[in-house]
Every structure is written in structure tokens, then in C-alpha cells.
């Protein structure tokens, strides 16, 4: 039986420790259940815990500074037709007056 590689450092020298896998090289531990789930089943949720999907309309719940600019995306700004992407900023969208932007799901709610 082959064990999965470490998701953090890709080391192949992982071992089992109870219900977890452990990497001896970077000391990362993760559950066996997490290892069996695929990345495609990742669920993106808004600030209220509602599941977001591609094409949804969202509302910004906090003033967000635009990096590299002095402008701000105001509270209550509606964003239509979002696209979910991988990464820290998991929403890709176009905001009228600002253009293409990436947002974190923790600062939006489903409209």
C-alpha cells in the first residue's frame, strides 16, 4: 500500500500515526479523511456560510481598499456573475468602475 505524498512539501516519506498522516521532513500532519477528498470538492462559502457557485451575485460587506490605488470598493456594492478560482482570493469578478478583480469570500455575502 502506498501512502500519499505530503501536500505541503511533496515528500514521499510520509507515515501513518493513528488517524493522521505525518511528514517527517516538514512535520506537517493531515487527517486520512482529508487525504481522500479531492480538491475539486472544495466548497467556497460567503461570510454567512452560504455556498457560492459560479454565476452567483454577491454583495460586498466591508469597505475594501483596491491595491495599488486610492479608491475603495464600498459596502453594498453588488457584483454579478462571479467565477470561483483556486487560491487565497477565491472569487474572480468584474466590478463596475474598477474592472477585473479578485475578492476573498469572507468579505462578501450572497445576494
UniProtKB/TrEMBL annotation:
Q: Which InterPro entries match?
A: YjdM, YjdM_C, YjdM_N
The entry's family comment says: Belongs to the YjdM family.
Q: Which residues form a coiled coil?
A: none
The family database entries (Pfam families) matched by this protein are listed as:
YjdM, Zn_Ribbon_YjdM
What region holds the Protein YjdM C-terminal domain? 44-111
Tree of life domain: Bacteria
Which PANTHER family does this chain map to?
Answer: PROTEIN YJDM (PTHR30305:SF3), PROTEIN YJDM-RELATED (PTHR30305)
Q: Which Gene3D superfamilies match?
A: 2.20.25.10, SH3 Domains
Q: Which residues form the Protein YjdM N-terminal domain?
A: 2-31
| Full protein name | Alkylphosphonate utilization protein
